Amino acid sequence: MEFILLILSVFAAVVPYFFLILFIWWMDRNEREPFGYVVSSIVWGGVGAIIIGIIFSLILLIPTQMLLGRDLADLLGTIMIAPIVEEIAKGIIIIILLNSLQFDNATDGFVYGAASGLGFAMTENFLYFSQAVGNAQGWLILVFLRTLFTGVMHMTTCSIFGAIVGAVKYNKSMAKKIFLPIIGLGIGMLIHSIWNITAVAQGKSPDSYALVIGIVMLLIALAIIFILFLVSVSHEKSIIIKYLAEEAKTGLLPEQHIHYIANFSQRKKRGWFDHRERGAYIDAAVHLAFRYDQLAHAGSQRKIEKLKEDIEKLRMKIREILTKHQ
C-alpha cells in the first residue's frame, strides 16, 4: 500500500499543477510566452529554488537554533526564514528571464512567476506526500489541503513578484524599477508567512479556525491577483489596437486586419488571411505593438535603440508576409 501511495504521490504532486499552469498559459491569449520559457520556470522552481531554499534555510536555521533553542528556532524557521528564503529563490528565474524580449509586461511576469511557484510546489508537495504514505487517511487529507491551498499560495506569491517586475520593466523611473519589485517580493513573503502562521496555529489548536482564516485570506489574495491578470490581458488588447491602428494609417497593414489580430477568438476564422502565414503574421504584428508601447516608456538610450531596431525588423517581416499574401 505504501508503494502505491508513493507512486500516487508523484501524480498528485505534478499532474494538477501541470494542468493549472497550462490553463494560465492558455489564458495569456494575446501573445503566449514561449513554452520552453514556461517549462524552464517550472524546472527552476522545482529544482533550483528548492535547492537554494534548503541550503539557505539551513544556513540561517542552524545559528538560530544555537541562539534561541530548537523549538523557537523551528517556529521562526517556519514563519519567517522559509517565507523570506523561498520567495527570493522562486523569484530568481524572473530576474534571469527579464532581459529577454519575450518578457514584455505584467502578464508575462505573472505567467513566469506562477510557473516557478507551481514548480516549487510540485517538489515540496511530493516530499510531504511521500512522508505520509504510512497512513492512507492522513495522506488523503494532506494531498487535499496542500494541493488546493499550499501550492496555490506558492503560485500566488511568486506571480505577484513576477507581475510587478514585468509592469516596471520599461518604466523610465529607476526608483520604481528597484523599489516596486522589492515591495512585491515583500507582499509575497507576508502572504507566505501568514499562511504558515495559520497552519502552525491550527496544528497547535485543532479546534481553532486559524486555517480557515488563512484559507480565506489566501483566496482573497488569489482573486485579486487573478483579476489583475485579466485586466493586464485586456490592457494588452488595447495596446495592440492602438499601435496597429497607427501602423494601418502608414499603410503597413490593412485596417480590417486589426479586428482579427486583437481578438483571439477571431484569429482562426477563415478567409481573412492565408492560414499558412497567419500565425507568423499575427505574432509579428502583436510584438510590433508591444515594442511601440515599450518604446514609449523606455528610459535608457540602450533600450531605446534596441527597441527601434526590433521594430524595424518586425515591420520588415510584416511587409514580406503581406507581399507574399497579395
Q: What labels describe this entry?
A:
single chain, 326 residues, mainly alpha, elongated
Structural summary, described in words:
This protein is an all-alpha fold and 326 residues long. 83% of the residues lie in helices and 0% in strands. The chain is built from ten helices and no strands. It has helices at 2-27, 35-68, 70-97, 106-131, 136-167, 174-204, 210-250, 257-262, 275-297, 301-325.
Our estimate of the beta-strand percent is under 5%
Helix and strand sequence? HHHHHHHHHH
Rough shape?
elongated
Look at the structure and give the mean pLDDT. Answer: 91
Helix vs. strand class? mainly alpha
Largest sheet: none
Q: What is the strand tally? A: 0
Q: What number of domains?
A: 2
Helix content: over 70%
Q: What Rg, in angstroms, do the CA atoms define?
A: 23 Å
Helix count from the secondary structure assignment: 10
Point out poorly predicted stretches: none
Cα distance, first to last residue? 66 Å
List the helices and strands and how they pair.
Layout: H1 2-27, H2 35-68, H3 70-97, H4 106-131, H5 136-167, H6 174-204, H7 210-250, H8 257-262, H9 275-297, H10 301-325
Summary, kept brief:
The protein is mostly helical. The chain has helices spanning 2-27, 35-68, 70-97, 106-131, 136-167, 174-204, 210-250, 257-262, 275-297, 301-325.
